[in-house]
UniProtKB/TrEMBL annotation:
This is Copper resistance protein CopC/CopD. It is found in: Cell membrane. It comes from Streptomyces musisoli. The keyword Flavoprotein does not apply. Residues 442-454 have a biased composition (Pro residues). Residues 1-22 form the signal peptide. It is a multi-pass membrane protein. The keyword DNA-binding does not apply.
């Protein structure tokens, strides 16, 4: 019981009001400025506390040689800053700073900026590539996160199904529960090993380095992953000991221990994701924990019900009370999910505009659509559950009545002659002729014909199995979108990042680079081209303008356009130009290109609420 208390202390002790997913608020020196004297250090200020890496800063001189700097640290004990000390003497020219830190919600963020000493110069292309984010590491980390969510839902949902729905037998549920425990342990171990490569953007092969393992153990996500492992191993050991010793604990004690374990496990998620950073952190962590528990009870219990209804389990003999109780459990879980989901959506979005203008908001809308499909499937399951209950009730009520004229046993009475009860009916008639003249009682009115029965119970269970399977498929989609949401910048932070003041553009040679990229969404009338202008198209400050043309060659209005540039030779970027709608065209007054070379210009055009396409083209940036 001490471990959940320590988890709560770790969660609340690290809480700080900020905006979930750190956003760069200010830099010193400012991006794109020209300084009279060389600065002594570079300081970045974020909207929330950030964690530092061994390679948080990479600084290049005007000749694109990497400078030797001191270790990164926080400024004056402020956890929302990152600072690095520069060499004592800096040559005249433009310097490039590439940075990478970890948000308080455990997700790494990166970017770049430039500053010049005494005058602006153009640096030559870098000869060697530097370390960048590894797609294999990111993919493996995402898969491990999804498996962790899936196995947690299956484990806790199965336990809730057994405790509340009380199926007649639970032996068939041991296999999926054991598989969930093994999968959760494996996914947790993978997340711990991949934590350092995921933060630093390196290959998975570096996961087993001793420095990576020890560094992860000093971070909050690493500590929570270790706590999750300890909880699972402790629960597994207790279960094995109770089973081998054939000890049976009181039901209340078992339920209390299981509830404590479920809450503690859920805290290891909510304490390391979006809820752990931002506004109203204690309320957010409580809401996220309840949301996770309700999700597990509903979706994991749904999987347990589906496993119970599988064809090899003789589902026709399943009591209707089991499905009725699960229906009540699912209804309560949906109510909790609705309340906590609305709160978390408001906290993550911050405005109605972010619901459609940010990736987080659009992913949230997709999750809402999947939840609606899940609710529709659940409504079908609830209908068949009620029919099963109605079909079971008449079967219990139709007890066979004794046939007319058949002897009805009477209760034994003291003093009654036992021989009389054993005398055959013909003998009684011969001995008592008077009684024989008594007319036989009529057989009575015939019973009314029974109503035509509905579908056979086996058919009803078959249809219930199908609707539950549809629920399970929709639940898998919901879990996938939930995993995607946890790694997406919240809408509130994305909007705040877009509102950051742009850097004033510097004067340059009055030339421009114009790039035209065709696009085709795939639907009729959903094609065209986007024309992007970089002015002057050289190193330094640039004015960015983008115009979208429709299939007829005329101007086209689109709800969203995003333009980024990446320098593959330096593994730098993507750098977001942050173009905004100016009424007929999109533009950004100031965007700094730090290095020359062949950049990849990428444009994401959204033509409707559901249709968008990303196209790219190379663009040459000179000195």
């Amino acid at each position: 019981m001490l471990l959940p208390v320590l988890l709560s202390g770790l969660v609340l002790g690290a809480a700080a009001p900020a905006s979930a997913h750190a956003v760069l608020r200010a830099t010193d020196p400012a991006d794109g400025t020209v300084l009279r004297t060389a600065p002594r250090e570079v300081t970045l200020t974020f909207t929330e506390s950030v964690g530092l890496l061994t390679d948080s800063f990479r600084i290049y001189d005007p000749d694109n040689h990497r400078l030797r700097t001191g270790p990164a640290g926080h400024a004056s004990g402020r956890s929302d800053t990152a600072r690095v000390t520069l060499p004592a003497r800096l040559a005249t020219g433009t310097y490039t700073v590439a940075w990478r830190v970890v948000s308080a919600d455990s997700h790494p963020i990166s970017g770049a900026l430039t500053f010049s000493v005494r005058e602006r110069t153009a640096a030559p292309a870098a000869p060697l590539p530097e370390r960048t984010e590894n797609p294999v590491t990111t993919a493996l980390h995402t898969i491990a996160r999804y498996l962790a969510y899936l196995s947690l839902a299956l484990l806790l949902g199965t336990a809730a199904f057994v405790a509340y729905c009380r199926p007649p037998t639970t032996a068939h549920l041991r296999t999926p529960a054991l598989a969930a425990v093994v999968t959760l342990l494996t996914a947790t171990a993978a997340l711990y090993l991949l934590r350092a490569p995921y933060e630093e953007g390196t290959a998975p092969a570096t996961a087993l380095a001793l420095s990576s393992l020890t560094h992860t153990a000093t971070t909050r996500p690493g500590l929570l992953l270790l706590a999750r492992t300890v909880l699972l191993l402790l629960a597994a050991v207790c279960a094995v000991l109770l089973r081998t010793r054939r000890t049976r604990l009181p039901r209340r004690a078992t339920l209390a221990a299981a509830a404590s374990l479920a809450v503690a496990l859920s805290l290891t998620w909510s304490a390391s994701d979006h809820a752990s950073a931002g506004i109203q952190v204690p309320a957010a962590i409580a809401s996220d924990t309840l949301h996770l528990l309700a999700m597990a009870a509903w979706l994991g219990g749904l999987a347990a019900l589906l496993w119970t209804l599988r064809p090899t389990a003789a589902p026709a003999g399943l009591p209707a009370s089991v499905t009725a109780r699960f229906s009540r459990l699912a209804s309560a879980s949906v109510a909790v999910l609705a309340v906590t989901g609305v709160y978390q959506s408001w906290r993550g979005l911050g405005s109605w505009q972010a619901l459609t203008d940010t990736t987080y908001g659009r992913t949230l809308l997709a999750k809402l659509a999947a939840v609606i499909a899940l609710l529709l499937a659940a409504a079908c399951s609830r209908t068949w559950t009620k029919r099963l209950a109605r079909a079971a009730a008449p079967a219990r009520a139709r007890v066979p009545e004794p046939a007319a004229g058949a002897p009805v046993p009477e209760p034994a009475v003291r003093g009654a002659a036992p021989v009389r009860a054993r005398v055959p009916e013909p003998a009684v008639r011969a001995a008592a002729p008077v009684r024989a003249r008594v007319p036989e009682p009529a057989a009575g009115p015939p019973l009314p014909p029974e109503p035509a029965p509905g579908p056979a119970p086996v058919t009803q269970v078959h249809l219930l199995r199908r609707s539950v399977l549809a629920e399970a498929v929709a639940a898998g989609v919901v879990l996938a979108l939930t995993t995607l949401l946890t790694s997406t910048v919240p809408g509130r932070a994305a909007v705040e990042s877009a509102r950051q003041a742009p850097v004033p553009a510097t004067a340059g040679i009055p030339t421009a680079s114009v790039t035209t990229i065709p696009f085709d969404v795939g639907a009729p009338g959903r094609r065209g081209r986007v024309q992007i202008t970089l002015d002057p198209g050289r190193v330094g400050g640039n004015f960015v303008q983008a115009v979208v043309y429709g299939p007829d060659g005329g101007f086209a209005s689109v709800p969203e356009l995003r333009v980024t540039l990446t320098l593959p030779a330096r593994h730098l970027g993507p750098l977001d130009t942050k173009v905004t709608d100016r009424g007929g065209y999109w533009a950004a007054d100031a965007f700094t290109l730090p290095l020359p070379g062949t950049w990849t210009l990428k444009a994401t055009v959204r033509v409707s609420d559901v249709d968008q396409v990303t196209v790219s083209a190379p663009v040459r940036v000179t000195r």
